[in-house]
Structure formats: C-alpha cells, structure tokens
Amino acid sequence: MSKSNLFLLALLVLVFVLAGCAAATPTPAPTATPITAPTAGPRPTVPPPGELVLMSHDSFAASESVIKEFETVNNVKLKILKSGDAGTALNKAILAKGNPLADVFFGVDNTFLSRALQADLFEAYKPASASQIPAAFALDPDFRLTPVDYGDVCLNYDRAYFQKKGIEPPQTLDDLTKPAYKGLVVVENPATSSPGLAFLLATIGHFGKDKYLDFWKALRANDLLVTEGWEDAYYAKSSWGGKGGDRPIVVSYATSPAAEVFFSEGKLTEPPTGNVLGDGACFRQIEFVGVLKGAKNAAAAKKFVEFMLSTKFQEDVPTQMFVFPVMPSTKLPDFFKFAETPKKPAVVSAADIDAHRDAWIKAWTETVLR
Amino acid sequence: MKLANALFILPLAFLAAFYFYPLAAILRISFAGESARGVWELFTDAYYARVLGWTIFQAALSTLLTLVAAFPAAYILARYDFRGAALLRALTTIPFLMPTIVVATAFSALLGPRGSVNLALMQCFQLEKPPLAILNTLWAILLAHTFYNFTIVMRIVGGFWANLDPQFENAARVLGASRARAFWHVTLPLLAPAIVAAALLVFIFDFTSFGVVLILGGPRLATLEVEIYRQTVNLFNLPTAAALSLLQLVCTFALMFAYTRLQARLAQPLRLRPQAVVRRHLQSAGERIGVGGYLVAMLFFLMTPLVSIVVASFAEGLGYYAELFVNRRGSITFVPPIDAVRHSLLFAGATVLLATALGLIAAYSLHANDRQPSSADRRHSFLRRFPSVIHVLDAVYMLPLGTSAVTLGFGFILALGDLRASVALVPIAHTLVAFPFVVRSVLPILRSIQPHLRQAAQALGASPARVWREIDLPIIARAVLVGAVFAFTVSMGEFGATALVARPEMPTIPVAIYRFLGQPGAINFGQALALATILMLVSAAAIVAMERWRVGDAEF
Amino acid sequence: MLRIIDITKTFAGAPLLRGISLTIDAGEIVCLLGPSGSGKTTLLRIIAGLERAEGGRVLFDGRAMTDVPVHQRGFGLMFQDLALFPHRNVFENVAFGLRMQNATRAEIRARVSETLELVGLGDFAARDVNDLSGGEAQRVALARALAPRPRLLMLDEPLGALDRVLREQLVADLRAILKRIGMTSLYVTHDQDEAFAMADRIAIIHAGRLAQVGAAADLYRAPANAFVARFLGLTNLLPARGRADGCVETELGVFPVVSSVGGGDAVALIRPERVRLDARGIPAHVEECVFRAGKFRVRVLTDVGVRLVIETEGALGIGTRVGLAIDAVEVIAA
Predict the structure, then answer these.
(1) N vs C: which end of chain B shows fewer Cβ within 10 Å?
(2) Strand (E) positions, A4-89?
C-alpha cells in the first residue's frame, strides 16, 4: 500500500474516531445538518410553552375528542411520538435519558417495569386519585410509574371448531398436553413477541420456575406451533383469523373475543372465540405511565398522568386499546361484556421477570425450538 | 475539477452524519464498561456460531435459487420486445415492497394446511391430510426470499444484458459453440459483473432477513438480525447486541470487499449497444412458447399471493375500502388512507431524489479508477489515485444494508440531537438503504463504457459536462432508472426503520397496515388487505410512470 | 463448393434480397461489393446461419445447410466490429474455436501459435485484447476465425475502421495469407479498391440482386450496366438513343459505338481515355483538376451543361476553356 493510500485510509479512520468522540460527549449535539431534508419543517429546539410531548408504543390510541378536551382545559398541544413496540419505545427512552425526547411516557408494562425503574427514567409523581387504584396494580409504591390499564394474555379458542368436533375446549394449561389437543395450539416466540413472553410467564407462574419446562416439553411433544409474532399467529395460523390456518387454539388477549364482535360491524352477536381461563392460564399485563426526568414541560406531564386516570380517559381505554382501565369505578362499554377476566391469573413479580427474563427465554428456546 | 472533488465528498458526508456517527454512538454506549463480556460471549457460546452458520447457509441457498429463477426473466426482458414489457417489469417489483406479514398471510392462505392449494389437492385426490407442508420449513424461506428478491436479479442483470452486444455470442456460435456453450463461455462471463452485483444485494437481503425468516420459516432458528433485535429490544443486552451488530457489519464488509476485488477483475470495457439495436420481436413458434410459458409460470409464482390479497380485500365488496375512510372510534391516531398514500409517496419521492443523486455521485467516485486513466483524468480527482481505498469505499457504501434497523434507530436517538424526532429522518433512513441499490445498478454499466467513447466526444469538442450529457447519460440512463425504481420501492415498502422514526401523524402505508394488523377482528384484517392492495396499485402506477419517463433523449 | 441459390429476405417489410445466386469454388476469394445498406451483411449472416432466409437455399459441397445450426456449419466469420471476446486474452480468443471442437491442450497450443505466426503476431499470445491497436486486433480476429480451419471463411468489412495506408497493407497481407492456405473466402466490402486488390472474382450487389459477377478486369472492361460502371468509378454516362447507322445519339452529339451490351434503355459510357482535347471539339470549361497516379483527372462542364471527367498529361487551370473530341463510346444497359 502506498503512502497516499495510507493517508486516505487514515482519513477514513479519522471519520470513525471523530464520530465516536462526538458520541462520547454527554449531551449529544447534532454535528451535521441534513444535506437535504425535503420534508423537514422548522423544528424548534425547545417546545413552545403549551406543548406536551407524549412518547409511547405503536399501540397507543385515544379518542380525538378526549385528547381535545385535555388540550383545551390545560391549554397545551399534545404531540405524540410513537417509537416501535413496547420494548423498543422504552429502550429508546432509556437511551435518550438526560435529554429526553418527550415529557411523559406511556406504555411501560410489568414485564419491563424493573428495567424502567432501574434506569431511573421517571420522576415520582403520585396522582390525586392514586388511592383508588387497586393495590394489585400499583407495583411501584413510589409512583414513578402509575398504572393506567391492564389486560390478560390468554389462549383464545375457536368455538365453532370444538362444537363441530364435539370436543370440549381446554380449560387449563395441563389440558393442552393431552392427546385430544394434539396439533391444535399456536404460541408466539417469547423472544420476539410480547404476548409470547407473557404466556411464557404465565406458565412459569403456574408451574413454578423448576417445572415449567416440563410443561413445554410435553406441549412440544403434542405438536406445538411457534410463530414469530401475534399477527402471524392470529391471522395466518388460527382457524378463524384470515385463511389457510387450521389451529383452533392461539395465544392472544382475553379481550380479543370482544374485539372480534366490535370489529364485525354488527355481523356477530357473539364472539367466534372463547378464552381458556383456568387458574394460572393467563398472565396479566399492566401498563404504566410516568413523567420523564428532565421533561421540558413537567407540569403538563403531571397533568396528563392525572388525566389518564380520569373517568373520561379511563372510559376511552377499552374501545381504543382493548384493555381494561385500572380504575374499578369505570363504566365499561357494552361489547366488553364479551371480555372475560380470569379469576386467578398467574403471578410473577416484576423484579423476578427482569432478573430472569434472559435465562428463561434462552431455556425456553433450547427446550421448544431446538 | 474542484467541483467534482467536492461532489465526491457528499455521499461520504451523508454516511458520516447519518450512519457512522449514530452507529459509533450506540457502539460506544454498548461497549462502555463491560465491552469484553459481549464479545466474549460470541466466541464461547456455540449458539451464536450456529446462528451465524444458519444465517449464511439460508442466505446462500436463497441467493442461488433467486438467481436461477430470475435469470430467464432478465434475458427475456433484455432481449425481446413485446407489448406489456413495462407493466411486467413493474409487476415483478411489487413483491419487493410488500410488508412481510401481509405476504406471510397470503402464503398461508395459499399453502397453509387449510390453504386453497392444499384444499384443492385434497379434493382432487381424495386425501385425508393436506399434502403440502412447506410452511415453517427451509422451503418456505427459500420460496419467500425468491419471491421477494426476484426483481433485483431481473432488473440488475436484465438492465446490463439489455445493452450487451449480441455480436459476441454470434462470434462464439460461428466459431463452433452451441447455443449453450456460447452462453456459458461468452455471455455469462460478460454478464458476470451484473450477476455478482445482483447476487450480492440479494445475499445481503437474505443475510439480514428478519420477518421472512421468522414468519415463514418459523422461529426454530434465528438469523443474526433476529438475534440482534432480541438482544436489543427484549433483553436490552446492548453489549451482546453491539457485538452481534459488529459481527454482521464485519461479514457485510468482508463480503463487499471480496466482491469489489472480484468485480474489478470482472469489469470489461464493453461495446454497450442501444437496446433498440439489441432487442427483437418474438419470431418462431418455439420462441413464443418458451418465452410465453416462462412468463406465465413467473407471473403465477409472483402474482398468485398478491392476487389472493386483492381478492380477499374485496370479500366485503368495497366495504373494507369504505371503512378506511371512517374514523369510527374517533381515534386521535386515525389517518385517512389517502394521507398514508400521500406520506408514502412524499417520503418515496424524497428518497428517490436523495438516493439517486448520492448513488450516482458515489458510483462515479468508485468508477474513478479506470484501467488506464489518462494523466488528465488523474488530475480530476484525488480519489483516482487510490484504487485500494476506493475498494474499501465501495464496501463502506454497502454497510447500511447490513445494519439492523433497531441498532441504527437507537443510534439516531443518541446522536442526532434535535433531529431525533424529525420527520426528515424517514427519507434519510430510507436513503441509507436505498442508495446502495443505485450504486450497484449504475456501477457495472459505468465500468463497461469504453473510455474511447468519452475521449472521442472530448476530441469532438465536448466539455466534460457535455461528455457526460451526450455519452454517459444515454448509456447509464436505464441503470439509473433501475436504481431509482429500487429506491422508490425500498422507501414504499420499508417498515422496520420507519416504525422507529416515523411520527404517528405521518404514517406510511406499511406502518398503517401494521396498525390494523395489530388488532383482532375481521374489519382490521380486511382494512389491512385493502391498504396492501392500495400499496400495490399506487406503487405499480408510480413504477410504470417512472419507466415511461426516460432520462436523456436516446432510449437506452 | 459453396452454392447459394435464389436467396430472398425482407427487412422491416421491404425486400432486401430479391433472389441472389452465387457459386464460390474451392480456394477462391470472392468479393461481395456493394454500397452500404445493400444487404451484403445480411447475405453473409444467412450463409453463416445467424439469420434465416425467407426463400432460396444454401448448399455446401452439395449439402443443404438450411437446417444445420450455426455452430455445426464449420464456417468462419470475421465480424465488421471484430467482436473479440473482451474477457479473454489473445491466446484464449484464438483458441476458442478449437476448444469448441474439443481439441486437446497440445493441439490447441500448437495450432494457436501456428495461426498467430501466420498472421504475424507470434508473440502476442498473452496480450489483453483490449490493449491491441486496430491492425493487431484485426489480425487476432483473422487468426481466431482461421484457427479452427473453417471450410469457408467469410469476412464482413474487416478493415472498415482502419486508416487507408494500413488498410492497403493489410489487404495485401490478408490475400497472401488466404491464398497461402488456399482458404475459400467470401469477402464483403463497399470499397472497390479493396475488392479489386482482394478478389479473384467480384460480385456486385445492387437493389437486392447481383448486378454482375466476374473478375476485376472483366468488370472494368465490360460493366454490365450503369450502376456497375458508376460503382467502379466510371462516371461519364449519358442517356443514349441508338440510330439506324449503328451510332448513338446523346446530348453531346452522335458517336460511333465500340461495343454494345443488351437492349432496352441504354446509356453511353465515355471512358476518360477516349476523350481528347481538341480546340474545335465540344466547348467546355475546367471545373476541377486533381493530380492522381501520374496523370491529371480533370472535371469539365460543357456549355450544354454535361459534366465529364477526362485525363490529361498536363495541369489545367480552373476556368480554362477547352474543346473536347470523343472518339467512340460504349453502350451499356441503364
């Protein structure tokens, strides 16, 4: 290699190093303006007074009228940032710590709770109505994270299928390993899917840390089908979803049967699917909201936390996100009569989840996929 | 030529600002403190070796199959002139931009245990059980990868072939070579640069494949990309994720570097001919049957899944489409489909402009090492003096393709300050993955232009700009178009990075599709299919329009 | 050896070849001479098998070639643009045909070096074909065509791109080489000098037909029609009407006829050497005067408006008044 070659190579290396050094400064500053940013409007550094930025995951939804009301009452404009699935959104928030992208963050669930708290992302703020929240949901006594809604991950089954075959639908997790249910079950991979992980946690909660793998071994032997995500399981592999699938038992949400009715445009008077609600067969996901440390508009953020617990918002939760509001007094919409809740969902503590998540998923992968 | 030097810096500057800088930021954070652990894990845990081995294996096999399947299509579209060729080209591009989950659903509906193919076979042959069980096998992965990447091979190889002088093949024939031997000994080696370019892109896509492998192949064995996602998002194990990212980068880079060496050896100054001279109509009956038969098979393979989506989207008549316009729940995140189409087209338009401009400049900076550069040429650019650095650069330009969206998305958060939440990040992220396509499409043709042509034009009094306008442009126009079409499709179909950086009020069509598919219920499914149909229609229309629009006055 | 019978071919709906018949004997070099666009190359491609004729037959040694595929005909073809394989060096280019015959390595090596020696490029074997000069590339293309010992060699304007001096040199070399190995050849060109220097016989193609076939001297001595005459550079042609006394009447007067071919429409061919300067002759003035090959070629315009080319021993100034005396004319078909 000639001298001049070395020189240019050194130049290239320099670009890397500089990039690295620049990244090392505690508050990253933009080094380069985009060469062309055709769609970029002027974006002020500091949100003008009256702007509240909410960071959330892709599934966040709310009624326009409800949000409008919040905006009018508090004289703020709500800007929503969606940042991928629940895990991705949280991780982005953690990376942006110190110079947060938003003021308030919604969508930390109990499987990610410990990670969020350990990262010291959130400002403690106890809303006025905190006392009305059932203790089972208030997992953070310091109220850095406040529960907003909850939902159960359960097995959905195809009513028509079991009626036609004349078999009883399964009642418990143990049923699934019986020969009658051979080749009927679809679960999502806990490594890539949030309901998949929740269902794995249900089995851990139900069977215990030592025995859950035996269950999975038996399930695998009973011709289990594993998919990457909920969409694929529910729409492509289930016997009721899209077309082509033949599996009548799928890991989904306990509210999915209700949603089927809601989204049938009046065609269905009762859900095509039912839930397996036996003890410990479901895992409860609780979603939290919190005020981000370093928020530019912390005052409005706190108001938003309050607002999420208000009757108005809580009543909006079922129709928009198909989960249950945490406030027990909330009136549920009519179609939610089809949304069943398990009497005894499986319990695994947030701290346990965070400590063992990696090991559990690895062990599951070894047992089920290999 | 100060201007040229300054221009050549542009792609590098773009990469530095929006790729290396964010990447360095995330790697730095990841390796801070316990860097050794993540890397050490890679070497000690046999699991990762298996993942890497599997990733390479399925990618190599998929690439081979795609090459074989799409090669005749490249030939037919390069050599024959027939009505509907432009439409055909546009149609083959559509699979490339379909969201994986939609395709997976379509494949399921066709090939699943209760899919139409299996049901038909069971009825025909009175079978008890569905005879086809390819879902969740390696076959499904190969099939899906071929389905997706067919157009890459067809367009890049076909675009090059279309300008290749058939006289070489004639010469071989007269010298006693049968059709097959003439192809093997002459045509194939001359096509090699384009074949290698296409194979490389396909391989990188298969190598970093995420959704296809997971959904259609089943999650039995993850690819590197999947493992990176898992480590980053689920486990937030940044050291291991970063180590895996680096591993993937090193693989991509090594591959690219080997490729650039190979291509430097393969590149031949060819007499590229206008397509009008080279193309011909179908003549004999045998020709018609052969070409027609292949095209029918090709369309069947590529279109059946798509058609099944379209058909399913009309299950309720226009009901699903009408529903797209109704904000039934009064949701604040509701976006009318027209807006999603508008956003998609806006981002795609910006991406095409940005990626084509940067890609063209990058291709020229890489081409700068001519075989025998004249002393005048040498003065044009300091880059010309460093061929080996140029090979490194060539590989560097491809790196964004081998980087997982999650890694880069996280890097953006760390590195881009106030740009972090900007809408501009969408076309920027799309450009990062689109512009390698422009480079790969243009470079083989650029390298094949005989220097004499340019020298002749110069001697005839053309200024450098005029030489480019009169000589280069007409010859590379087709390749630029191919690159632009790819930039467009990459942008229209991109989901992974878009989901990370898009603003909820400006969703693209794929983002909107995933929103619908994220909820249970027949209407959601139907609306997703309706939007997917709209995505196909809009994209096909735009691609046909792009094909009509020619650069320069000569139709090359 | 090679017989082509009544070949017809249309191009884009218009007839290109309208029934061409030609025979080439073993060891003979025949030149197909005609202006560009006359269908020469197409005829060559039909003989080679690269294109199909719409009518007519190609026979070689009495055997019909129609259904024999290109690569089994055993003909060599040297392309106008040479079409050297850019991805192979000189040796590999020349060896290509032999490899297709599945010759052994030793045979190939021997034959390639023998052929390269023949074309005077003995030490070029390892050269990159992209680095060759025009003349070298042309010789390599010839060597490549000759190496597999074709039964017939066809050359399609192989010297088209070269400069005149090089071309004249190469024509001589080429003929010498082809004659030395007794190669039956069909050589296509639009250049009459090249054809004259190269060919044993020349076939002039015009409007899809062969206008005349014969040895160079015969064509020149007795062109069959006005086209052939004009193509051979005999440009003094005047419409002529025959008279009862055997003379012909033209715009310039009545002249005796030395030879007469055919009937129908006729033209009078006035060869420059039959025109003398004579003060009492046809009045004219000099338009142009060029020195060529020991004599002066002078173009004159007669007062009645007819242009003639004559030859003189001395130079004539432009505008000089001259008188022309024409001894006799030849009458040929229009």
Answers:
(1) N
(2) 51-56, 77-82
Contact present, A142 and A124 (Cβ < 8 Å): yes
Q: Give CA–CA dist B152/B437, Å, rounded.
A: 9
Does B21 contact A at CB distance below 8 Å?
A: yes
Q: Measured in whole angstroms, how far is the alpha carbon of residue B176 from the centre of its chain?
A: 39
In a domain, B210, yes or no: yes
B45 touches chain A (CB under 8 A): no
* In the block, residue with structure tokens 């289930």: A238
C96–B165 CB contact, under 8 Å:
no
Each residue of C108-138: b (16+ CB within 10 Å) or e?
A: beebbbebbebbebeebbebebbebeebbbb
* Domain span at A236: 151-284+345-369
CA distances B55 to B140, B207, B224, B244, Å, are 15, 6, 6, 13
- Looking at domain C2-226, its CATH superfamily turns out to be P-loop containing nucleotide triphosphate hydrolases (3.40.50.300)
Encode pLDDT of B208-250 as tens digits.
777 666 677 766 666 777 778 777 777 777 888 888 888 888 8
Nearest beta carbon to residue B521 from set A8, A99, A263: A263
pTM of the model: 0.76
CATH class of C237-333: mainly beta
Q: Which two tokens stand for residue B3?
A: 């201007």
Could you say which of A58, A192, A260 has the minimum Cβ distance to residue B520? A260
CA angle A37, A40, A43 (to 5 degrees): 130
**A354: CATH:** 3.40.190.10
Nearest CA in chain B to C92: B185
Q: What three-state secondary structure class fits B545? A: helix
What is the ipTM for the molecules in this complex? 0.79
Q: Give the model confidence (pLDDT) of B504-513 as tens digits.
A: 677 888 888 8
CA distance B270 to chain C (A): 7
Whether A170 and A123 share a structural domain: no
Size of interface A-B (CB pairs under 8 A): 299
CATH of the domain at B435: 1.10.3720.10
The mean pLDDT of C306-319, rounded to a whole number, is 85
- Residue B250 structural domain: 2-548
| Neighbouring subunits of A (3+ Cβ pairs under 8 A) | B
Residue labelled with tokens 């993955």: B433
Q: Which residues of B touch A243 (CB under 8 A)?
A: 108-109, 112, 114-116, 312
DSSP class of residue C88 equals S
Using the predicted structure, report yes or no on whether residue A356 has a pLDDT greater than 70: yes
Higher-confidence position of B257 and A45: B257
